[in-house]
Design goal:
Length: 330
């Protein structure tokens, strides 16, 4: 059955999305060389109204990626450097008494921006990390009983070092679950690293980046993605994967319902970037590692045996039957 026009995005909308998203990706790739999939996932998360967690060892370009995405869009950007002495009020804001007006005034914290770059998020205390929970899920901030709505688009791009690194705290499960996807930068291939030496030693490539889109355009793209159709068999496939993680003997914590929602929303963005107004099962399967792995916890037995969460998830996905149809149904 064909998708009814009201159920999806038309061709002109998808052409607009491809054009604008392509400009942003090209801008990112001017700074992050040899990592096209990382740039693509960043766009998927942005258009799916999610938040991105970039995890890897120091020095591989985590902060550079987050800054490149932020500078490619003409919108408000704030950076929060997470340190052990950072307070929750530094993130959310604080009410200050004004002696002249004899009233309390709200002074916004670092979270009040369209794109928030949280650098080394796991160096802050769990109490400060938890200040982000309401912001990331409900896109609002409550301070002293007063709620402030955050402007759209709103995206947190957080970097963190592996938990084995000195001076880090593990992110709470509730915090990890609010990140739509996690990506690891990895070391660059030899050719890309040589190219980096040629470009990055002369000047900072971020200095030459100009915005190639603005907040209004991104909001339009998000609306286009929201209209991408997800047929019931595809929805059932995503749910089946999540349910299988909860039943796996290798995992003590499986995927939450929020994880299933994030998986489908990310698949809609991936489908739109591929020029389709409907999601196919392959879109869902291709994103399972980035969207689900960071939310799962292995059992003690699995950890002691050296089995990884990624390996457990691969086995789970391989064991879930994929719908046969590749065309939009429903």
């Amino acid at each position: 059955m064909r998708v009814h026009p009201s159920m999806g995005s038309d061709g002109a909308d998808l052409d607009t999305l491809a054009r604008v998203a392509g400009r942003v990706r090209e801008s990112i790739e001017k700074v992050i060389e040899g990592k096209p999939e990382v740039a693509r996932l960043s766009m998927v998360v942005l258009l799916a109204e999610g938040h991105l967690l970039i995890e890897d060892v120091p020095g591989v370009g985590k902060t550079m990626l987050s800054k490149a995405l932020a500078r490619s869009i003409d919108c408000s950007v704030r950076r929060i450097q997470f340190t052990p002495d950072l307070l929750p009020s530094d993130v959310t804001g604080v009410s200050v008494f004004n002696q002249d007006t004899r009233e309390f005034e709200f002074r916004p914290g670092g979270i009040f921006a369209n794109i928030v770059v949280g650098d080394e998020i796991n160096r802050a205390s769990p109490k400060t990390q938890s200040a982000l929970l309401e912001c990331m899920e409900e896109r609002q901030v409550t301070v002293d009983g007063r709620t402030q709505i955050l402007d759209a688009p709103f995206m947190v791009i957080a970097t963190q070092n592996p938990i084995e690194m000195e001076g880090t705290y593990a992110l709470p499960e509730a915090q990890r679950d609010r990140f739509m996807a996690r990506v690891s930068m990895g070391y660059p291939v030899e050719a890309a690293e040589i190219a980096m030496l040629n470009t990055h030693t002369r000047a900072n490539p971020l200095d030459d980046l100009e915005p190639v889109a603005d907040a209004v355009e991104i909001r339009k793209l998000v609306d286009i993605v929201s209209r991408v159709h997800v047929a019931e068999p595809v929805q059932r496939y995503a749910v089946a994967i999540a349910v299988a993680t909860r039943k796996s003997p290798e995992l003590m914590l499986g995927a939450s319902p929020r994880a299933t929602l994030h998986l489908v929303r990310a698949a809609k963005a991936a489908a739109a970037l591929a020029g389709r107004d409907y999601v196919i099962p392959d879109d869902v399967q291709a994103l399972t590692n980035q969207v689900l792995t960071h939310r799962l916890l292995p059992t003690v037995e699995a950890s002691m045996s050296g089995r990884t969460t990624e390996g457990a998830l691969r086995n789970i996905v391989a064991g879930v039957a994929m719908p046969e149809s590749r065309r939009p149904l429903g």
